[in-house]
Amino acid sequence: MSETRIAVKTLGAEGGSFVVDDPAVWARPMAECGMNCRVTRPLSGQVEVLPQEDGCLARGRLTGEIVVPCDRCAEDAVVVIDHRFESFEPFPGVTREGETEHDGETDELVIHVTENGDMEFDLGGLLWEEFALCVPFKPLCRPDCRGVCPVCGQNRNEGDCDCAEERGDPRLAALRGLRVEK
After folding, report:
1. Could you give the C-alpha distances from 66 to 49, 75, 81, 95, 118, in angstroms and in order?
2. How far is CA 115 from CA 14, 56, 112, 152, in A?
3. Which pTM was predicted?
4. DSSP 121
């Protein structure tokens, strides 16, 4: 597994550019989060880290392709990832002018303080956050996915079934014929 932590003090004023394409960077968090997805085109992150007075500015791009279950029919939904990002990551314990620090609210996924007091920028943590942001909440195999029949489970994309279409809540059946006149 490639090292994804960069000592901030080694960056210098000009910063640094990094490429993270090790599959292990993505596999472990996917397993830990219980994500039901598989990578079909390798995920790769290109990141430029620029140190600032009170944190680091990170700019980059995340590319690749994954397959996840469709939210409507559970068939494969292909998600092409081509995500550009820009993120400011503050140093732990440092507040920006006019802001107050709240205990427990610092983002420790990206900048860590080591045992000897040095700070490390975790490229893997940053890229994982960006990956999580670009995976759709309700992925679809196709925009017009019809889902499955709630009665028999037939995939409606493959054909219709003989089940009767339910017309809403049966407790409100008496109101179906109600007409309002003006």
Report:
1. 26, 13, 8, 37, 36
2. 26, 20, 10, 58
3. 0.76
4. E
